[in-house]
Amino acid sequence: MPFFSRREPSPEPVYHPEPAAEPPSRKHSLFHRNRDRDVSPLSSQRAGSVASSSGGNPGAVNKRDSSGGLIVQAREHVMQAEAAEVEADRALGEARMRVRAAKDHVWRLEEEAKEEARRAKLKQEQAREVSKRGKGLGRHGL
């Protein structure tokens, strides 16, 4: 096969991407403006009705709506954290109450044991006295 032969290259398949339904998402920030975004008819109706009812600029309403979701999420997170703190405080109070009850129970058991030991010692002394008196019995050869 010759090195410098003339040969027509086969055409490579050409890929024609279809235009995307939504433009690629951009980085969102607090001051980002969404001028190039396609707006669904429902959201544009809502924004228009809010703008017409407030008599303001519809662009300002859209800006507030877009950041409003983040604020709602943040508010929900804060509310969940507050509820968790309340639950933790309640659980901590209950745990402290149970610890106090357990310590009181142990103290009562110790006091009962001391009282039982005192009674047992008293009973032992009484039994020793009775035993002493009983040793003197039977001196007549029984």
Automatic annotation (TrEMBL):
Biased composition (Basic and acidic residues): 1-10, 114-132
Protein name, entry field: Uncharacterized protein
Taxonomic lineage of the native organism: Eukaryota, Fungi, Dikarya, Ascomycota, Pezizomycotina
Sequence segments annotated as region (Disordered): 1-73, 114-142
Pro residues compositional bias, start-end: 11-22
UniProt superkingdom: Eukaryota
Stretches with biased composition (Low complexity): 43-55
Biased segments, Basic residues type: 133-142
